[in-house]
Structure formats: C-alpha cells, structure tokens
Amino acid sequence: MAGRDKKKQCDIGLIGLGVMGSNFVLNMADHGFSVAGYNRKEDKIRQLSELKSAHHKIETTQDIHAFCQMLRKPRAIILLVPAGPPVDAVIESLLPYLEAGDLIIDSGNSHFTDTDRRVQFLEDKGLRFLGMGISGGESGARHGPSLMPGGSAQGYERVKPILEAAAAQVSGAPCVAYLGPGSAGHYVKMVHNGIEYGVMQLISEAYDLMHRGLGMSPAELHTVFARWNQAELNSYLIEITADIFLQTDDQTGKPLVDQILDEAKQKGTGEWTVGEALNLQIPAFTLGAAVMMRDMSADKHQREKAGQLLKGPSPQLEGKRDEILHQIKSALHAAMIITYAQGLSLLDKASDRYHYHLNPETVARIWRGGCIIRAALLEEIRSAYLSNPTLENLLFDGHLGRAVVAQQADLREVVRFGATLGLPMPGLMTALSYLDALRSGWLPANLIMAQRDYFGAHTYERVDKKGIFHTQWAKR
C-alpha cells in the first residue's frame, strides 16, 4: 500500500481533459513530470489514455477526492475549464480536499476581475491562486505555449520548474515568467488577445486590397505572404495566412478560403480589452476598429442589402503590382508596430492602476514564442524596453519610431487606396490616425470644450493662464 501511495504522488494535477487540457498534460509528462488528470467524462480520460506513451507518468480519475489524494503537497492544480461559473464550480468542488498552502491555477480565459475575486476568496482560506493566461492553441499546449501567470508569488515558485519546462523556448529562454500580483497574468493575456484582434484585422485588410483590389488568386496570395514571412513581417499569423491560401476544399476542389462565410466570430476577450482601454482612457484605435469590424461582419444581411442600395466606386486598383505590394507590406509593418504600441500602452496604464508592477520587457520576451502574436517584431520590442525600461510609448523608441516614420508614406498611400476603391480599412486607417493624433501637439479638442461649455456649462481651461473658466456664450 505504501508503495502504491508513493506512486500516486504526482507533481501536478490538471482538471479538464479537453483538447487543450490533454495536450498540456502530455506536454508536462514529456518533460518528466508526473501528472494527475481529472475529468467527469470517461471518454475524455479514455482519449488521453490512448494518447499517452509508456514513459509518460500520468494518472487519471473521475473522482475529485481521489484526484486530490494523488498530488504531492503542497498540491498544485491547473484548471482548463470554460471561463465563468464553471471555474467557480470546480473550485468549490476542490475546497473540501485541499489544505493551507495548496495552489489552484486557472488557465482559462477568465476576466481579470473574476481572478481578483478568486485570489481574495482563496487567500482568506489559506490557499494560493494563480490566474495564468495560456496562448498557442492545441499545438502550443502540446509542444510549448506562452504562459502568463500572475497572482501568488509563492504559488508560482511551486510550479516554476514545471512551467518553464513546458513553455515554448526561444534562444534557450522559456516563454513564461511571473508577471505580478492579483490578476496580472489574466490581464496580460486579455491585452495579448486584443493585439491579436488588431493584427488579424490588419492582415485581413491587406488581403482584401490584394484580393479585390488587385484581383490576386489564393495561389498568388500564398506566394506573397510566404515571402513576407521571410522578412520583417515574420510572425505566426503571417505564416498561417500563407498556409491558408494553399488549402483546397475537399467538397468543391476550390480554394477553401473562398468557401468560408465572411462572418468573423469572437469570444469576448477583444471586447474586454477595448472596454478596459476606454475605462483607463488609453486610445486604442486599431484594437477598437478590429472588434467593431467583427461586429459589422456578423450582420451579413444588412451588408448585402446596403451593397444593393448604397453604390460606391469599383474596387479595381490600377498601377504596378510589385510597387503596390511593396507599399502594402510597408503599411502592414508600420500598422503592426502601432498596434503593439496601443496594447503595451494599455498594459503600462493598467500596471499603475492595478499595482501589477509589470515589466514590459518580460511581457515582450514571453510573447516571442508559443503564442498567437509571436513575431520577429517582438525581439525589437523587447530590445526597446531593455534600452529604456520606462519607455512612455513604444513609438518613442528610436529604432521602432524611425521605422514607422520611414513607412508612413506607404501607410498613407495604402489608406488612400482603400478610400478611393471603397474598400473598408478601419484597421489601417485608425493606425494612421493614431500616429497622426499622437504626433499632434495641437488637436481640435479646444472646439469640443467650447461646445461643451456652451451647451452644458462644463467649463474649460485656457492656454494663456491657469484656472477654470466659463463663458456666457449665448448673448441675445
């Protein structure tokens, strides 16, 4: 019996053996750690059993009490269940079997306010809690994701060797680090997803201009995106975009991308990011445009009706294709830098507001591999924060700022293409507007303040003297 009990003392446990959970269990087991897996459904346990190999030290059960008994103390348990009430339900089911010092890690896409609530709730019971964002999808979970933990610093130390081994590796460094107290990890993951929305929107607009504007076929688009992925646009999203254009539909034999309905779904994390940008008064033009374009895409009926009623120009772009493609590439690169700048500005403000003490260089470092927004650009962003840890805005970095300035003419031209052809490009347009607003020492907000004072006596400040002023505008 003693030998059997010792055998069952697993290094870590994981609840939720769906696609992500099972793959992460196998990942941790690949690195020599013993893992206990729990799921209520027998078929999930059976599927994991079929995937594991003889050298994997994996125990599974459908009994939550037995699961907790399998873990060495202090226990460490990862939850990979849907965000919201399911997380709270699992926590409640664990409480009778946990002891002071045990650790729960929520790796779902939980809203950061829920994470703060759970941190406090569990601390009051002597338990530790981490909210850990995980990015990389099924493949990342299996072979190395980007992990974004925040919460209990002592709790992180308990699982640090396991997470560092399982995370993606870039230049010998793991794409995981303790980010800060409370909900720091889930907040960083939320902003990661907001940036992801923005970059995906920018790529889709470049595709639209090339597809409808230049009439390029999927095969031609593949060639261009594959070439772009070998230079400064090198990134996971550009890489998979190139792959997508090669995929043939099994049913029709046509390019699959042309058979996919043009309605983009969303799970809410982009909306959360934009809501937080509004709450903290951080201009995130491109992130907001990306979310709203998904909303616009969802109303296909209205779009088709408007296409019949509201005629516009023909989306046919004239000019030398190679020159136009170079301009699109430069515009996309500049807009991507601007999009990252918006997301990182939000993290900077949130770090102060919520006392996360985030290190932007660390954030950039753990985003370099495993996650959806991994890109060569992140190495440059990391270098920018290494050179200046208190960088106020990413565009103030000499290297990245110069890159955007050098490419702004192409960005302006591509935005003009979109406006002239009647092709919607809110991502690229708002990236340019952000740049122009940021570099404007004067904005026409003075007129807005005059209007507010006129109709609502909201007062205003002056440029020539200090104080608060009000004018009786209507003198009739």
Structure description:
The protein is globular. With 476 residues, the chain is of the alpha/beta class. Helix 2 crosses helix 8 (153-166) and helix 10 runs antiparallel to helix 11. It is 55% helix and 8% strand. The chain folds into 3 domains: 9-182, NAD(P)-binding Rossmann-like Domain (Rossmann fold), CATH 3.40.50.720; 189-438, Orthogonal Bundle (N-(1-d-carboxylethyl)-l-norvaline Dehydrogenase, domain 2); 449-476, Single alpha-helices involved in coiled-coils or other helix-helix interfaces.
Fold topology:
Blueprint: H1 2-7, E1 12-15, H2 19-30, E2 35-38, H3 42-51, E3 58-61, H4 64-69, E4 76-79, H5 85-94, E5 103-106, H6 112-123, E6 128-135, H7 137-143, E7 146-151, H8 153-166, E8 169-170, E9 173-174, H9 184-213, H10 218-228, H11 236-244, H12 269-279, H13 285-298, H14 300-309, H15 321-354, H16 360-366, H17 377-387, H18 398-421, H19 426-438, H20 445-456
Strand order within the widest beta sheet: 3-2-1-4-5-6-7
**Major β-sheet profile:** 7 strands, mixed
Share of residues in strands? 5-15%
Helix content: 55-70%
| SS element count, helices | 20
The CATH class label of the largest domain is Mainly Alpha
Low-confidence stretches: 1-6
Number of structural domains: 3
Q: Report the order of strands and helices.
A: HEHEHEHEHEHEHEHEEHHHHHHHHHHHH
Looking at how many chains there are and whether they match, the oligomeric state comes to single chain
SSE-based structural type: alpha/beta
Strands, total number? 9
Instruction: Determine Rg (CA atoms, Å).
Output: 25 Å
**CATH superfamily descriptor of the largest domain:** N-(1-d-carboxylethyl)-l-norvaline Dehydrogenase, domain 2
Rough outline: globular
CATH architecture of the largest domain: Orthogonal Bundle
Give the CATH topology of the largest domain.
N-(1-d-carboxylethyl)-l-norvaline Dehydrogenase, domain 2
Average per-residue pLDDT, rounded, comes to 95
Q: How many angstroms does the end-to-end distance come to?
A: 96 Å
